[in-house]
Amino acid sequence: MRGSACTRCPATPPSADILATDGTARSDLGAGLAGPNADEVEIVRGLDKPLAILQGADEQLVNPGYLQKLQAPTLWRGAVQTVQGAGHALQEETPDELTALLDHFIAELPPHPFP
């Protein structure tokens, strides 16, 4: 679903490789999203743990405006971290930048006492 009816969908159409994904994989993903984690907005709003959201500047699947509007009280650095030169697969497109961001996120976590 694209356009005004879908707040999570990007404005630009997905690339050919995304459109060529096995239809079964897409339906399985959809079924998984309908489970206990279906309301990610409420889950994020109620988190009491640090949360990092990393998104490629050229993301084709998730609308950046949707992520920017999430109420996320524990969002790392108070903002979605945007990685230039990446789309949806930061781990493949910009692995060094992703690793550096994750290293910073981990380093900035508050101390956690373990039982």
Note down, in words, how this protein is organized.
The chain is mainly alpha-helical. Strands 1-2 form a two-stranded parallel ribbon. The longest helix has 13 residues. The radius of gyration is 16 Å and the shape is globular.
- Helical residue percent? 25-40%
- How many alpha or pi helices? 6
- N- to C-terminal distance: 46 Å
The arrangement of helices and strands along the chain is HHHEHEHH
Query: What topology, given as strand order, has the largest sheet?
Result: 1-2
Mean pLDDT, as a whole number? 80
| Largest sheet: number of strands, sense, barrel closure | 2 strands, parallel
Shape label:
globular
Class by SSE composition: mainly alpha
What is shown here, in short?
The chain has 115 residues and is mostly helical. Helix content is 38%, strand content 5%.
State the main characteristics.
single chain; 115 residues; mainly alpha; two-stranded parallel sheet; 6 helices; 38% helix; globular
Helices, strands, pairings?
Elements: H1 16-19, H2 23-33, H3 40-45, E1 54-56, H4 64-69, E2 81-83, H5 90-93, H6 95-107
Parallel strand pairs: 1-2
